[in-house]
Amino acid sequence: MAGDSTASGTVALRRAAIALAVFVGLTILLLAAAPDDLYLWIKAVHVIAVIAWMAGMLYLPRLFVYHVDSELGSVQSETFKVMERRLYRAIINPAMIIAWAAGLWLAWKGFGFMGGWLHAKIALVVAMSGMHGYLGGAVRRFAEDRNQKPARHWRIVNEVPTILMIAIVILVIVKPF
To answer: How far apart are alpha carbons 165 and 156 in whole angstroms?
Structure first.
């Protein structure tokens, strides 16, 4: 059964890599076809990546809440490990990288890295990236059956990306300073 899980994990990662490559390839083609709209295309890519990143950041701690309640070594626990690893590696990590790359380009091209709201936004995105790293460590600890945190901890952690996201969106849309 472990061999099947590893094989299906490899296939899933390969499919995710292919999907990401197709997305990047189509983005490059679109950029080549419409260079005058480069800023808008990069902005669209940024928003898509942020949505994917946030979906994973909101779902992963929820998986941890349920994983805590599963018995060590059980089929359910092993399934959670696979789900957590795939979510983190195949969705959350690539989405964060694309969000950062596109976001930094937009900050430079559109705003010259100027503006109090932009500096605050970048600081909050750094905090979100810290949360990303914290969740990555948790994925490793769960995979090694070394999680020490109760479900209540993961319920609280589940709210952190939401709060950061709300503040980031307000800064981007309202630009209060």
So the answer is: 15
Classify the phi-psi angles of 125: left when phi > 0, otherwise alpha if psi is within -120 to 50, otherwise beta: alpha
Average pLDDT over residues 86-96: 95
Report the C-alpha gap between 168 and 175 in whole angstroms: 10
pTM, two decimals, is 0.83
Own/partner long-range contacts of 1-9 (Cβ < 8 Å, ≥24 apart): 5/78, 5/82, 9/82, 9/85, 9/86
Kindly tell me if the per-residue pLDDT of 166 is higher than 70.
yes
Classified as helix, coil or strand, 158 is coil
Give the mean pLDDT of 98-126: 96
